[in-house]
């Protein structure tokens, strides 16, 4: 031991303890509630801005884009062969060589759709029911470009989603929760959604605005937005029904949500008829049991065994290839923990939205067990935010000391 250590009475252990104490004091001085809250908000804003650039910087030329391009142009290009050539020409011009090769050769189904215009045209019956999304492509495509329209829709939707979540967290005074919302959004497929030319990002933006209006007590203002969300993705009618159930069980206002549900119910049949949709079971069988190269004349009889097969396949694919089901299970377990700790009230808008999200996710999967995270993303976000409102986590050291 050095002479200075002996004379001062200090050992290396004392110096280490002093250093740790000094570091702890510095962290307490820096990581105050104000600093951490502002930092969380800034990080969230930067995250949203980065994701808003993704549709233009890293677009994904996927199969759904071909279908939406075809629907956007089928009113002006009536010949199926010409429509097929035009759509695939746009895809080849915009996609990378690897993307286009993957799109046209990845499996027998894609190869058939690329080779046969009539097969390709027969698939459009599944996409026309996304009426609000396809109308936007049809209106703005000739002006700014069809692919560019999908990119602008995604970019603007990302910004709207970010603004709504920021307002929600600020109003609930849980802005530090942005540090948890970001990974939840990424696990829920937010980055992937930003790349894809699908209506899910737009539907999420509209639905979250509507739900936020309900959250702040502007229920009637939410009605047109909830109905618009249905026009973007018709399966949102399941979430509207879940909202009705949750409101009835937990003392919420039923009439505004019931109005949106009735409007969606009345519009469902005409939209399906105009789009020549083949019906729930045919769509279910095609997506979850066996893909068909040609949809003309395909109407399989209902089979309980086939339905069970589709659900089990959806569960398996969700766990193997997607994150949404794992995230959902974790959020439900978090809800049970809060429930056991008496942090979940018996009534109130937060618990209504929480319950509606759980019922909505479960209902959507039972009705149509798609394994893709993007289908459940908006409901996972609402569920996550509702849980964070009840939990109210803090990451500053002032909060730690208070706890």
Automatic annotation (TrEMBL):
The chain crosses the membrane at residues 35-57, 152-169, 181-214, 220-245, 257-276, 321-339, 351-370, 376-391. Keywords: Membrane, Transmembrane, Transmembrane helix. This is DUF2029 domain-containing protein.
């Amino acid at each position: 031991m050095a002479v200075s250590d002996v004379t001062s009475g200090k050992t290396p252990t004392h110096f280490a303890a002093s250093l740790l104490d000094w570091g702890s004091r510095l962290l307490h001085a820096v990581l105050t509630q104000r600093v951490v809250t502002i930092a969380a908000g800034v990080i969230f804003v930067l995250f949203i801005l980065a994701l808003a650039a993704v549709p233009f910087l890293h677009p994904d030329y996927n199969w759904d884009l071909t279908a939406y391009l075809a629907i956007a142009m089928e009113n002006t290009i009536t010949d199926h062969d010409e429509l097929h050539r035009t759509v695939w020409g746009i895809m080849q011009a915009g996609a990378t060589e690897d993307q286009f090769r993957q799109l046209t050769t990845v499996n027998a189904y894609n190869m058939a759709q690329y080779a046969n215009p009539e097969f390709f045209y027969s698939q459009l019956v599944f996409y026309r029911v996304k009426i609000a999304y396809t109308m936007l492509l049809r209106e703005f495509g000739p002006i700014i470009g069809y692919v560019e329209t999908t990119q602008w829709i995604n970019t603007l939707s990302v910004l709207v989603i970010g603004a709504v979540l920021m307002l929600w967290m600020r109003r609930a005074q849980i802005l530090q929760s942005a540090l948890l919302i970001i990974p939840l959004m990424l696990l829920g497929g937010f980055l992937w959604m930003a790349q894809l030319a699908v209506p899910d990002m737009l539907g999420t933006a509209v639905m979250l605005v509507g739900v936020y209006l309900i959250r702040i007590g502007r229920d009637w203002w939410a009605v047109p937005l909830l109905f618009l969300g249905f026009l973007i993705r018709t399966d949102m009618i399941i979430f509207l029904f879940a909202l009705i159930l949750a409101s009835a069980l937990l003392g919420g206002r039923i009439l505004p949500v019931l109005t949106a549900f009735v409007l969606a119910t009345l519009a469902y049949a005409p939209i399906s008829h105009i789009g020549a949709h083949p019906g729930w079971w045919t769509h279910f069988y095609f997506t979850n049991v066996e893909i068909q190269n040609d949809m003309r004349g395909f109407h399989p009889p209902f089979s309980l065994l086939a339905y069970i097969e589709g659900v089990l396949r959806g569960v398996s694919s969700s766990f193997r290839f997607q994150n949404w089901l794992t995230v959902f299970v974790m959020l439900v377990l978090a809800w049970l923990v809060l429930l056991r700790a008496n942090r979940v009230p018996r009534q109130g808008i937060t618990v209504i939205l929480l319950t509606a999200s759980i019922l909505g996710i479960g209902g959507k999967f039972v009705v149509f067990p798609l394994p893709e995270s993007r289908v459940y993303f908006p409901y996972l976000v609402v569920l996550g935010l509702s849980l964070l409102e009840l939990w109210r986590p803090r990451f500053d050291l002032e909060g730690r000391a208070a706890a």
